[in-house]
Amino acid sequence: MAVAGTAPGGQVPPGPAADVVVVGFGAAGACAALEACATGASVVIVERFSGGGATALSGGVVYAGGGTGPQVEAGVTDTVAAMFDYLSLEVGEAVTRATLDEFCVQSAAMLRWLAGHGVRFEGSLCQDKTSYPPRRQYLYYSGSERSFAHVAPPAPRGHRAVGRGTSGRAMYRALAAAVAERPGITVLAQTAAKQLVTDGAGRVTGVDSLTLRGAPAWAAFAHRVLHRASKKPYLYLPKVGRALHRRVARLEGRYGRPLRVTAHGGVVLAAGGFAANRALMREHAPAYRGGLALATPGDDGSGIGLGTQAGAATRLLHRVSVWRFISPPSALVRGVIVDQAGQRVCDESRYGAAIGDAMVSRHGGRAWLLADRRIVAAARRELRQSALGPNSALWFQSLQGWYLLSAARVSATSVSDVAERAGVDPAGLAATLEAYNAAAAAGQPDALGKPADLARVIDQPPYSLIDLSIRPRPAYPAPMLTLGGLVVAERSGQVLRRDGSAIGGLYAAGRTAVGLCSNSYVSGLSLADCVFSGRRAGRHAALAAPAAAAGK
């Protein structure tokens, strides 16, 4: 047996064997394991911590359409063709049109599959433009569907899993429970994959790992507790989180013992992206400094690294989704986003990831929202109303809204004065507002595509400029996640080399691989891709097990 790279500690003692080995236990890993098990394959999941990954931190939103159960329940009309036409604009060339079509056609069935594994969805509809649906509402317009109504009939396709608060944890717990119920799946927690094992022909046949199984009980306990304690600080106070997690890594280094896990069919890499790896972020996406990594310590690029050690090609590593939400309150969408020169940045009704992308890629991450007295007053009313009732906004949405209307805002009685106060070019801002108001007053199409019902004249002083610039701000973070990864064959999820040939026995899914959301992110598309690509990789890795056995 050969090892892709240098094995830790030389010889690695043999451990468990299975038809399929899955590296990572978030949504993609869980779905890969469940699908492989459904074919009759035995599965071992290798998980560095206790599972969940970025899925458990997420909003638990799955992008689906074409007539899903919750859409029908809500009285929403949607078609596969409309979903395909809209997503074609967002997905671009990240995947082929055939793969996008397959995803759209299977979308409603995918949601039923998740429901069959305990993930709950429902059709309580949120009509407002929002970054995330309020409590007790679970279906919403999670992307820029309304902004592209001229291309495809819009429909709410963001299906939020039923759960308290942000419901990624509820989604993960359901998938983890489904995994636990399958006798053919074994989870090796506190086990970190370090190297891929290959045979003489270059086929991947297993994973060499460091495991805390067999370590002193106190060390394993401390590892779990310290990792759990570091996750929230890692997200909101990165320096504190990294300091806590260094102790976790020291425990692994001191008490971890080598363990080889053998795969008869294939290894599925589903270990997340690399938003938590500052060196890789500097190398591939240096423009995204100041964003807040929506990641766990496990999103360090290790899955992508395992693939590249085996000769895998990568693509779109520079693509990062950074989110700049201006709603709720939805009244702010009626404002105008400008850069330091006073020029328009993008259609303000677009999803927050599209706004963030425009800010970073074309305007240096700096932008301001111009609003007048009427817009600010409406936004304040919305915030007060959203704090009441069963469908109230979540705490972070209220915090963001009040921050934007207070600490992030400067105001003045004239456009030139407010521009001076904010550091925006007064002449540029005045020209932009004049052109915007003229088009809105005449009922002409907005130059950047903003829907007509949102493009209204802004002429009621005092005027405000709200600072949207991307920089570290606890009350107004700019969450981000990486979108690129290993190149895979789209029919199977098998990892490809730079020359286009397949690496035998190696598959990838989720944010470890290039997928549906690798060009442009809309809420729910990453988790939907984790389900879609995870199931695909798990199924094909399982089918490869009999073929591998026959070839011996």
Structure description:
With 552 residues, this protein is of the alpha/beta class. The protein folds into four domains: 2-58 and 167-215 and 256-321 and 478-550, FAD/NAD(P)-binding domain; 63-81 and 103-157, no CATH class; 225-255, no CATH class; 327-467, Alpha-Beta Complex (Flavocytochrome C3, Chain A, domain 1). 38% of the residues lie in helices and 18% in strands. The chain is built from 16 helices and 22 strands. The strands form five sheets. Strands 1, 2, 3, 8, 9, 10, 11, 21 and 22 form a nine-stranded mixed beta sheet that branches. It has a four-stranded mixed beta sheet with strand order 4-7-6-5. A four-stranded antiparallel beta sheet has the order 15-16-18-17. A hairpin with a 5-residue loop joins strand 9 and strand 10. It starts with a strand and ends with a helix. The model is unreliable at 1-9 (pLDDT under 50).
Short characterization:
This protein is an alpha/beta fold and 552 residues long. The chain contains 16 helices and 22 strands. The chain has helices spanning 27-38, 53-57, 69-73, 80-91, 97-116, 168-181, 217-236, 238-255, 278-284, 302-309, 352-363, 373-386, 395-405, 415-422, 426-442, 525-550, and strands spanning 2-4, 14-23, 43-46, 61-63, 125-126, 139-140, 158-160, 185-188, 191-198, 204-211, 257-269, 292-293, 314-315, 320-322, 336-338, 368-371, 409-412, 463-467, 479-482, 485-486, 494-496, 502-508.
